């Protein structure tokens, strides 16, 4: 069957997609929470380590007003030492014989600021990150963190204006 976004309550999941990411969220607090959780999944995915796919994801989930500067920041963040620290090749791919795992799993959401066209949503997440396979020096491990997404209603959908992440 087709996969869809998970709604936090009884509202039907969205049917739309933008760059493969759920889109078309309701202009409600519940819609904002669903958007925030789905965006956390996309931004925590292995696709973020591929430059072309990262650009699509960032453009799909962010306010167009912040996308260009964010692309530049993220291109720098997903390079060099940060890739080496994860045991990845310079192009963000896994070494031969290993599989790179990067998966964010939202556990809960909470609105901390609420206006008609701007909401702040905290997404409590766990993630799995590392290299799976024989002889991996960076085994897959889990961590807990909270992503705070400031969402704005733009172009008929919720989009991220800014976000921050903290441990726990």
How would you describe what is shown here?
With about 170 residues, the chain is an alpha+beta fold. It is globular and about 50 Å long. α2 (about 50-60) runs antiparallel to α3. The mean pLDDT is about 90. A hairpin with a 2-residue loop joins β5 and β6 (about 155-165). The protein is built from 4 helices and 6 strands; from the N terminus they run ββααααββββ. The chain has helices at about 30-45, 50-60, 65-75, 80-85; strands at about 15-20, 20-25, 100-115, 120-130, 140-155, 155-165.
Give me some keywords for this one:
alpha+beta, 4 helices, globular, about 25% helix, four-stranded antiparallel β-sheet, two-stranded antiparallel ribbon, 6 strands
What does the secondary structure layout of this molecule look like, with pairings?
Layout (H helix, E strand, L loop, with lengths): L15 E3 L2 E3 L5 H15 L7 H11 L2 H14 L2 H6 L13 E17 L2 E15 L8 E14 L2 E11 L1
Antiparallel strand pairs: 1-2, 3-4, 4-5, 5-6
Helix pairs in contact: 2-3
Shape: globular
Give the topology string: H per helix, E per strand. Answer: EEHHHHEEEE
Helical coverage, percent range: 25-40%
User: What's the arrangement of strands in the largest beta sheet?
Assistant: 3-4-5-6
Strand content: 35-45%
Number of strands: 6
- Uncertain segments are none
The Rg value, from CA coordinates, equals 16 Å
- N-to-C span: 34 Å
Please summarize the sheet with the most strands: 4 strands, antiparallel
The pLDDT mean sits at 92
Helix count, DSSP H or I runs of 4 or more residues: 4
* Helix/strand structural class: alpha+beta
């Amino acid at each position: 069957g087709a996969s869809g976004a998970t709604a936090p309550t009884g509202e039907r999941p969205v049917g739309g997609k933008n760059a493969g990411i759920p889109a078309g969220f309701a202009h409600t607090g519940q819609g904002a929470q669903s958007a925030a959780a789905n965006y956390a999944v996309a931004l925590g995915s292995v696709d973020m380590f591929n430059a072309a796919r990262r650009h699509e994801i960032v453009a799909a989930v962010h306010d167009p007003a912040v996308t260009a500067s964010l692309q530049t920041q993220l291109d720098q963040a997903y390079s060099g030492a940060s890739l080496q620290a994860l045991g990845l090749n310079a192009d963000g791919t896994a070494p031969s014989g290993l599989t790179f795992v990067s998966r964010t799993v939202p556990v809960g959401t909470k609105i901390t600021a609420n206006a008609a066209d701007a909401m702040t949503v905290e997404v409590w997440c766990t993630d799995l990150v590392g290299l799976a396979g024989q002889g991996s020096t960076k085994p897959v491990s889990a961590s807990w963190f909270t992503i705070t997404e400031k969402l704005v209603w733009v172009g008929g959908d919720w989009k991220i204006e800014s976000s921050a992440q903290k441990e726990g």
